Amino acid sequence: MSWWTPQLAATLWAMFQALVILLAVVVVGAALTVVERRLLGLWQDRYGPNRVGPFGTLQLIADMLKIFFKEDWTPPFASRALFMLAPNLAFASLLLSFVIIPITPGWGVADMHIGLLFFLALAGINVYAVLIGGWASGNKYALLGALRASAQTLSYEVFMGLSLMGVVAMAGSFNLRDIVAAQEGLWFVIPQFLGFVTFLIAGIAVTHRHPFDQPEAEQELADGYHVEYSGMKFGMFFIGEYVGMVLVSALIVTLFFGGWQGPWLPPIVWFALKTSFFLMLFILLRASLPRPRYDRVMSFGWRVCLPLTLVNLLATGAVLLLTGS
Amino acid sequence: MSTDALDRHAPAQSGIDRALGLLDGFREHIEHVQPTLTGLPVLWVRRERIVEILRHLKAPPASFSMLYDLSAVDERLRAHRDGLPAADFTVFYHLLSVDRNEDLIIKVALTGGDPNLPSVTRVFANANWYEREIWDLFGITATGHPHLQRLLMPPTWHGHPLRKDYPARATEFDPYTLTVEGQQTEQEALKFEPEAWGMQRERDGSEFMFLNLGPNHPSAHGAFRIVLQLDGEEIIDCVPDIGYHHRGAEKMAERQTWHSFIPYTDRIDYTGGVMNNLPYVLAVEKLAGIEVPDRVKTVRVMMAEMFRISSHLLFLGTYLQDLGAMSPVFYSFTDRQRAYKVIEGITGFRMHPAWYRIGGLAQDLPVGWQQLVQEFLDWMPPRLREYELAMMRNALVRERTRHVAAFTTTEALEWGVTGPNLRATGCNFDLRKQRPYSGYENFDFEVPLGQHGDVFDRGQLRIEEMRQSLRIIQQCVDHMPAGDYKADHPLTTPPPRERMLQHIETLITHFLQVSWGPVLKPGESLQMVEATKGINSYYLTSDGNNMSYRTRIRTPSFPHLQQIPSLMRGGFVPDMIAHLGSIDFVMADVDR
């Protein structure tokens, strides 16, 4: 078996890991749609979907069957190619970001030295999906949603990148494995609390989750940018949003809460637990908050969050210089 | 009209004197002083001077600052018109002075095949929709109206439905068909043309977006359409379009007996349940001369207040939902469920009990009702506190609602705004205090007032109103008078069943009143009540028949929607959604 080299084995193993992570993320994202509805039900004094399978656990399958068999309708007034491209872009850009997440010491897709920058770049591409989808739909509500999305993303990406620079400066690397390793003694959430808060806010904004769901804003824009989408194309936007939630939660865990680190339990369990906590936070936010007006969201981003991240970065830099570490 | 009717409403005479005094300079233009059972002075004036007269009445010292209602009557088939000026159509203006707590009805007689009269939109801004309505439904032209188009009926409609020669039943028409071409014509007719509304399509080389919001939109609260002229997300102007929920309730009233129209009233403000029955049965009782027992009055108040709470809970949930808060609506629906448990236990139905009767109630209170009501009374106060803590004190809610879509008392009166929306501006005008009916004078409660007349005050005030309603219901539980649940009067419909089974005379009356319906003497009566959303009134005209000759249903939501453009110019789309949520309207209450 001369072709069986350690190199090939490593490649195959990496491919296997990548495949498992990909599937896991998609399945978790899809399952979240049901988990969210059950949790909302719990918090809102009602049942939520509880009919399919024991405790509604098979609801996911029913939903998937439904969405697969729905008519995949493209409106005649839409620009076809762009209309098809948008959901793929939305789904792929966030999914690709998982490449950089180190799940456990042994698991992870790629160990890239540009790690964080890769995520920021893909998050930037993600807004094109919304923009293109809203524009290509040929619908005024979709267009308004797309405009809101681009304005919002523009405002929030600026300080999202900056909010992470403190972490990068402390760890001295963009590589997420290095960042996790740097949190051995102290999770970055403590020295980088401002960075954590601003990144959390930006993360919610980037995934268009409530209360930053301005681009969708059901009460105002009747679902905004994806109002013309149906069937699996809508499904990709929909699951894409949940994948985004998983991604942002995983990033928060990795960057501020020591990633897989934790006593007694195996790393994968710690990682899953911490991520679930933030996923739950996302859902709780949706259940509890009203939606601010979108111009306020914008001014909050520029007037509060951006200065905060700058102060945080300057302070981090100053401390690092003074302590000479 | 007989004189004994006037005696029954003696206070009207002093009102008539005062009204005549106020119109001293116009004596020669007053054609007739009509005695009615409305309790209000009713003056007929000449058509030519109507604008001047209304302008004079609006200004001090008369200060009839609100055009409360404006509608018309087709007089051509009316048999009992003794002494009234000759008319084919009558247009009436119901003016209301909040300062003096006094009303005045001005009527104008129109004759000839092409009825018309000068538009009063320059005097009262809210005459706009009312004049469009009488053009739409009666074919009466308001000369000088800025935009005299159909309001409730589709733009392609032929004929004027509330005219007496216009059929009321589907069986009187050819079968309805809609071809593909017909459908296209209808759709074309609904297309919005900015030019028709004096709007520009562009400014400084950049085009405006015309956004068609509704009739199907998550926040339109029913089939309501509003076309927005947008610059970015800023609203330059907007045009509300109503009529998608029009079911011709006023026309139906002319085809239903006095008794069998009661269930239709439930469906006017469909969140108000028996609150809708109240003005109708009170107005009918005025016509019939029925005085109901105290028990009936108290039960009516109790159930009406139950529905006020239920309606306000629906308001609160959807209001917060429109601000983007997802959960409150589920909590408020849980509470409504509790209210419905009580309502269902007492009336047997949930949303549309149609439970009040002419001269009484459908049944007496069931055994054990106190406990049922008390459970609800104990349940609500902590919940209301929770809503305040979780939502009304929330910074995001405050930011979304404070100083948004605010209007002053003067503006409110100009547009005919009533109810909680008027009181949110600080104007203390609650009919339950100002003109107590059905025994409200016996209850101890306060009228909550707002300050800024903004979206926030409109929300907060309704929470406070629910507390006051709970107080009233508590007093009903504690002091429910004993007695009969029906008045002992020949026109009480249906007559008491116990006696019906013993006396042949009562049996015959029962049979006639249920099958044919009670016959009421000719006359006009009117009853205003403080309904869930504002002042609701029924203006009934009887022509001595078992059916109404004309039923005018004045609903609060109609003027509230008409006011929207004046508030929204310069606002953002989310502000308008917040305002729509804070008005608390249902489309059936607008279109009837």
From TrEMBL, chain A:
GO terms for cellular component: plasma membrane. Its EC number is 7.1.1.-. It holds the Pfam family NADHdh. InterPro entries: NADH_UbQ_OxRdtase_su1/FPO (IPR001694), NADH_UbQ_OxRdtase_su1_CS (IPR018086). The chain crosses the membrane at residues 12-32, 81-101, 113-133, 154-174, 186-206, 242-262, 268-288, 300-322. It catalyses: a quinone + NADH + 5 H(+)(in) = a quinol + NAD(+) + 4 H(+)(out). GO terms for molecular function: NADH dehydrogenase activity; oxidoreductase activity, acting on NAD(P)H, quinone or similar compound as acceptor; quinone binding. Keywords: Cell membrane, Membrane, NAD, Oxidoreductase, Quinone, Translocase, Transmembrane, Transmembrane helix, Ubiquinone. It is a multi-pass membrane protein. It comes from the Bacteria. It is an enzyme of class 7 (translocase). Signal peptide: none annotated. NDH-1 is composed of 14 different subunits. Subunits NuoA, H, J, K, L, M, N constitute the membrane sector of the complex. NDH-1 shuttles electrons from NADH, via FMN and iron-sulfur (Fe-S) centers, to quinones in the respiratory chain. The immediate electron acceptor for the enzyme in this species is believed to be ubiquinone. Couples the redox reaction to proton translocation (for every two electrons transferred, four hydrogen ions are translocated across the cytoplasmic membrane), and thus conserves the redox energy in a proton gradient. This subunit may bind ubiquinone. Belongs to the complex I subunit 1 family. PANTHER family: NADH DEHYDROGENASE SUBUNIT 1, NADH-UBIQUINONE OXIDOREDUCTASE CHAIN 1. This is NADH-quinone oxidoreductase subunit H.
From TrEMBL, chain B:
Residues 322-592 form the NADH-quinone oxidoreductase subunit D domain. The keyword Aminoacyl-tRNA synthetase does not apply. PROSITE patterns: COMPLEX1_49K. Residues 43-171 form the NADH:ubiquinone oxidoreductase 30kDa subunit domain. Residues 207-592 are annotated as: NADH dehydrogenase I subunit D. Keywords: Cell membrane, Membrane, Multifunctional enzyme, NAD, Oxidoreductase, Quinone, Translocase, Transport, Ubiquinone. Its EC number is 7.1.1.-. It catalyses: a quinone + NADH + 5 H(+)(in) = a quinol + NAD(+) + 4 H(+)(out). It is a peripheral membrane protein. It comes from the Bacteria. Its main location: membrane. Pfam families: Complex1_30kDa (PF00329), Complex1_49kDa (PF00346). One of its GO terms (molecular function) is quinone binding. It is found in: Cell inner membrane; Cell membrane. Residues 1-183 are annotated as: NADH dehydrogenase I subunit C. One of its GO terms (biological process) is respiratory electron transport chain. GO terms for cellular component: NADH dehydrogenase complex; plasma membrane. NDH-1 shuttles electrons from NADH, via FMN and iron-sulfur (Fe-S) centers, to quinones in the respiratory chain. The immediate electron acceptor for the enzyme in this species is believed to be ubiquinone. Couples the redox reaction to proton translocation (for every two electrons transferred, four hydrogen ions are translocated across the cytoplasmic membrane), and thus conserves the redox energy in a proton gradient. PANTHER family: NADH-QUINONE OXIDOREDUCTASE SUBUNIT C_D (PTHR11993:SF45), NADH-UBIQUINONE OXIDOREDUCTASE 49 KDA SUBUNIT (PTHR11993). In the N-terminal section; belongs to the complex I 30 kDa subunit family. In the C-terminal section; belongs to the complex I 49 kDa subunit family. NDH-1 is composed of 13 different subunits. Subunits NuoB, CD, E, F, and G constitute the peripheral sector of the complex. This is NADH-quinone oxidoreductase subunit C/D. It comes from Marinobacter flavimaris. The lineage of its organism: Bacteria, Pseudomonadati, Pseudomonadota, Gammaproteobacteria, Pseudomonadales.
